[in-house]
Amino acid sequence: MRHPEETPTRLHHYNYTTRDQAKTYAFYHDLLGFPLVAFWVEREPIPENDGRQTVMGHAFYGLPDGSMLAFMSFADPEFGERVQGTKQPFGVHLALATTRAHQQEIAGKLREQGIFVLEIDHGFCHSIYFDDPNGLNVEYTSDPPNVDEIYSDQAGTARDTMLRYLAGDHTKTNHYYPGHDE
User: Fold this and answer.
1) Kind and range of the H or E element at 100?
2) Can you list the domains of the chain with their CATH numbers?
């Protein structure tokens, strides 16, 4: 078993590309309330640009634990188009923890802006999913009051459940999911 000091302590930042820093700022700062904690203009050797020094703008939006969401754009629009992130399938998303009240507030604000919001009660958490202006699928998730019970229940069985699943046993095991017995 690995010791906690042998693994990273928290997320430093998650980086994505943007074509439009102003739209990204309006979305993350103005709509969602993330503080812009840094904006760096950098020149760095980028592998996709044959290692040449490439001018970029790099915005960092802070979360309360010190981790950040970062959005990189490039001064050369042609290069920026080549390395732009693409819309990912539903299963590829950035999940951020929040309270249920904040989640509902944000869902309302997003809907007022005409942004589609998908809500799913997974049982072990409640989630809303939405796309940012760059095509990044974002999830705001809130834990239920019994979250500690849920994960302590899983702690002893997770590996065995995974191995049974990999062997072809697809019996539902999330008894917290609404409609589990269906």
Assistant:
1) helix 100-112
2) 1-84 (3.10.180.10), 86-182 (3.30.720.110)
